[in-house]
Amino acid sequence: MKSFTGKYPAIWQIDVEVDAASLLEEFLSVYADRYEKVYAKNDDWKGVTVFSKGSNLNLDELPELKKLVGNFGEKNIVGITYFNLAADSTLHEHRDMNGNLLFGILRVHVPLKTNDQAFMFIEREKYHLPVGTAWILDTSGLHALANGALGNRIHLVMDIKKGSKTLKHFPKYTASVVLHLLRFFFIVFSKVLRDIFANPKSLIKRFKDKVQEFIK
Q: Which structural domain range is residue 111 located in?
């Protein structure tokens, strides 16, 4: 695992063997017609969730995915989703609670279909993730997506927790990592304070949703 001596990047490439062509073919044959909107305000951002916390991880229909999951250990997988970003579209800047290092979870991105105009912006730095590679994203970092007109972009995304097979993918708590997480904590704290006064009903609903997700 690389050590971070400068600014915490929130995304880094990992050494995992990926057969992107087989994974894409498998996905298209089983799940291509099951896309659902991920974000209500964006018709161009859709996904297919294969596994989430509280459900059974059954990969019998997806043997290629099962091989990839074996690199991380099935018991360390928290969620698996295929995400599709349409051509000539974007996804706004945001941070996520899922795939968030502060809670001991990281997100694995495996590009299955992409093009030279497809980019991720992590902490406002521009990244192109090529097919056949694997990357770790800490979703506490500010991130956004942009895709040009050349075609849609499909990523396989897995949230992983710490375990014997995943520990090497987690960063050590260097000064830059700790500062990054402290910054994220204060961002969340300030938004909670804001919502207590400005929109308490929304805050209560989100809290209840998280409690339900945790106890599943």
A: 11-169
State the residue for tokens 């990357």.
Answer: 135
Query: Are 75 and 165 found together in one domain?
Result: yes
Whether this prediction's pTM lies above 0.85 is answered by yes
pLDDT band at 100 (very low <50, low <70, confident <90, very high): very high
- Express each pLDDT in 73-88 by its tens digit: 999 999 999 999 999 9
What is the structure's pLDDT at 213? 42
How far is residue 121's CA from residue 92's CA, in Å, rounded to a whole number? 10
Number of domain units in the chain: 2
The total of other beta-carbon atoms located within 10 Å of residue 99's CB is 23
Residue 16 has a pLDDT of 96
Question: For residue 178, which phi and psi values (nearest 5 degrees)?
Answer: -60, -45
Average pLDDT rounded to a whole number, residues 102-106: 95
Q: Is 211 helix (H, G, I), strand (E, B) or coil?
A: helix
Cβ neighbours for 215, distance < 8 A, ≥ 6 positions apart: none
At 55, the amino acid letter reads S
Whether residue 187 is found in the same domain as residue 123? no
Query: Which own/partner pairs from 68-73 qualify as long-range (CB within 8 Å, at least 24 positions apart)?
Result: 68/16, 68/18, 68/19, 68/23, 68/110, 68/156, 69/158, 71/16, 71/17, 71/165, 72/108, 72/158, 72/160, 72/163, 72/165, 72/166, 72/169, 73/163, 73/164, 73/165, 73/166
